Amino acid sequence: MNANCLFSPSPPPRLFPLRSTSSVSPSVYRRTGVVSEDVAVECRNLCFSATTRPGISVPILRDCYLRIPSGQLWMILGPNGCGKSTLLKILAGVVNPTSGNIFVEKPKNFVFQNPDHQVVMPTVEADVAFGLGKYPDMSLEEVKSRVVTALDAVGMRDYMQRPIQTLSGGQKQRVAIAGALAEACKVLLLDELTTFLDESDQVIKLELGVIKAVKELINAKTGGDVTALWVTHRLEELEYADGAVYMENGRVVRHGDAATVLDFIKAKQSSYIDQIGF
Amino acid sequence: MNLSNLPTPHPSLPVNLIPKLPIRHLTAPIIGRSFAIPKLLLHGTPAAKRVRATVDGDGGKTGNWVNRLPIPGLGAENVFRLISSATGSPIGQFISSPVTFLHSVDPRIKLVWLLTLVVLPARANIVVRLGLVVCTALLSISVLPRQVWMDQLARVSLLSGILFITLGLGSDGAPPMLQSRTPPSSLTGLPDLPMSLTGYSYMLLKLGPLQFTRKGLSIFQSASICLATTTPEQLALAMRWFLFPLTYIGVPVGEIILTLLLSLRFINLVFDEVRSVALGIVSRRVHWKQLTVLETLDIFASFIRRIFKNIFRHAEQISQAMIVRGFRGESSSHKIYFFSGSSNKFADFASVLGLIGVISTALLSEYFFV
């Protein structure tokens, strides 16, 4: 087994062909709208650097390429510190990139890894309705209907008036997801949603599972106009994905259908196991 | 003079090394039988008893005596354990089930009830006040789950008891030296001034040096019942309804209500953070007995510093989440939806009727119970 495979330069990412753009500014890129209609998320040459206190610039993302078609569930995988969450925050607009081009279809929503950072209201129904406050013309009946539907999708309909602090971590995560679902966004950016969920929440009880809820939401929309980008560490979740992105050291290493990325990751795992002689 | 003939002074202060973990002599399991220090049996001199005393149990050496102070329960470890095992639910949180009669009362009426129960005891007769206390306790028992009302009433009783002792029986201050400037009636030949018709008596009871005055009783349970049967959003909705007229004079009512709601959410995060950090310290299994006082204080300072750091991080993340969810910093442009719940007309009518009855009783009590 070649022990150098883990440390060799990353292979060139197998990307879908992107159209060339003259602009390098993300905002200009958004305005130009040169991406094809079937693409919900796209970024090219995306770089992000963080400046430390002594003034040293530390690169977090290096020339990232990404292209997610509309109406699909894609997952981003990679080791800790490879830049997955940072990439997602840039796509959500929480963090500004240093350079590069990005396009994210609107309306979009972002769900944080820690639900305590996402849930801002004291009770469940009020928090799910919080994101709808940006539509002041929406009637109260419409708001109620959306809240009930979203909570029903994540199996939390019976908890509408429950105080947030009485919920478990997994239940809070579902409330956070319901808040994103209620807004009926075209792009959902989900950062390690299953961190606080137990096994039954994830896979076994699919009726209540968050993955199922997101997948159903995508499938329910005719025309495939809802896209989800899901950051995860769990390989078993790839079963539900239409495509996947694998990152390492701030770069996109693999980009394609879920089965191909899964094979690539398993090959890396086995080479690593051979290397350490376990 | 030959200095060498002079006696050399030897310092008589022994220098004892203090062990880090002083080895104690075990006391004898049988009282009076000290095997470590056997009794001196002096035959023939019955009156003479020699008592041997040592500074420390380690043969005269001065050990770490601070560790031997009898302060159980006050150690740093116990403090952190208490914090980490404290309940995550703050006092007076909403209880969603079982749904009771009070849950279906309009939150505005509940706020008026709450205000009445806070203000009324200050003006009502002692009998009415005791009646309010009994009615509030009975209402708690009938409305709230058993564990909740037992916990709440026990807590309120303890608080009332402490107030009773500290305020009720304590003196309010030095009584002023009164001297009437009006000449006595015996000199003027005029009749005495009439006594007060209200029958007001500040001092209710005097037991020797202790006196029981009117400020000894208060009602706390009414606030707990209101919080237990009303969601924070309902309370905010009611407050917004009452404060709405102030918007005409420029008061930012929307921002006040949003700040209130965020505060109600953030309080729980602070509780959780304090518990989590305390649990983190307890799980490290620090050998507190080996630490000096300064080292212990340093850990407490780190504890507080860590809490503030985490809370500020929470605040930053929540503000990011609010921006992502569409909030643009102006409460006027971001609508907060309130779900007032299922307000029952009959419950509203009954509670308003009861409110009028209580206020009338309190007002009339001043005439009936004089």
TrEMBL record, chain A:
The keyword Aminoacyl-tRNA synthetase is annotated on this UniProt entry: no
Keywords: ATP-binding, Nucleotide-binding, Transport
Residue stretches making up the ABC transporter domain: 41-274
InterPro entries for the chain: AAA+_ATPase (IPR003593), ABC_transporter-like_ATP-bd (IPR003439), ABC_transporter-like_CS (IPR017871), ABC_transpr_CbiO/EcfA_su (IPR015856), Molybdenum_import_ModC (IPR050334), P-loop_NTPase (IPR027417)
Name the UniProt record assigns to this protein: ABC transporter domain-containing protein
Organism: Brassica cretica
From TrEMBL, chain B:
UniProt xrefs under Pfam families: CbiQ
Ranges that cross the membrane: 111-141, 241-267, 349-369
Record key words, sorted: Membrane, Transmembrane, Transmembrane helix
Membrane topology type: Multi-pass membrane protein
Major localization listed first in the record, in broad terms: membrane
Localization: Membrane
PANTHER family in UniProt: PROTEIN ABCI12, CHLOROPLASTIC
Protein name: ABC transmembrane type-1 domain-containing protein
Native organism: Brassica cretica
